[in-house]
Each structure stands twice: as structure tokens, then as C-alpha cells.
Specification:
single chain; 109 residues; mainly beta; six-stranded antiparallel beta sheet; three-stranded mixed beta sheet; 9 strands; 47% strand
């Protein structure tokens, strides 16, 4: 868990720059693309994969996500979301396929 806290702080403290996408900030460092997605914002990504570390009620949650087709990534939490793009890019066109990131899951969902 200490390692995840260190990674999360590193992601949080990067020098993000404003992107062309509202509420989405980007950092290019060490041949990697890092994203900070503000709460209630989204970004469209091409197929590929990304890594994310999110604060959840039970602690930090680490995920490696593979996208088989272009998709909109929605952050509907109350906190910024941090991602490391592995082999996907920004896409400007809205997509039918959506990945929705939220805190916890209601029992009937």
C-alpha cells in the first residue's frame, strides 16, 4: 500500500498542462503521457490501454484497462482521476462505447 501511495503522490504532483479538452490536463514525461481528468469531465481515447490509480472509499484502487475500440472515459467521481496512457491516444470524436469511473457501486447496479 505504501508503494501505491507513493505512485499516487507522484501522479498527483506532475506538472500537468492544459489540453484542448475541457477539464483534462496532460504531462509528457519520460516518453509517457500522463492525464489528469477533473471531476465530472471526460476524454475520448483510441483503442489501446491505460493505467490508473484512483482514490476509493476503501483506499487506492489500481487498474490496468484495455480498450478494444475507441471509447469515452468519464470521471463522474468528486476527485481528479490520474492515468498513464500506454498505447492509446486522444480521439476528438464522441463514441458510443463509454467507460464510466465512479466511486463504489450501488447494490442494484
Amino acid at each position: 500500500m505504501i508503494e501505491n501511495n507513493k505512485i499516487y503522490q507522484d501522479l498527483k504532483n506532475k506538472k500537468y498542462l492544459k489540453s484542448n479538452h475541457e477539464g483534462v490536463f496532460v504531462c509528457y514525461e519520460n516518453n509517457r503521457t500522463y492525464l489528469k481528468i477533473n471531476p465530472k469531465k471526460q476524454i475520448t481515447l483510441s483503442e489501446g490501454s491505460f493505467y490508473t490509480l484512483m482514490r476509493q472509499p476503501s483506499g487506492l484502487k489500481e487498474e490496468n484497462v484495455k480498450i478494444d475500440q475507441p471509447a469515452e472515459l468519464h470521471n463522474i467521481t468528486d476527485e481528479s482521476m490520474f492515468c498513464v496512457l500506454k498505447d492509446c491516444l486522444f480521439d476528438n470524436q464522441p463514441k458510443d462505447f463509454k467507460l464510466i469511473i465512479k466511486k463504489g457501486v450501488k447494490e442494484n447496479e
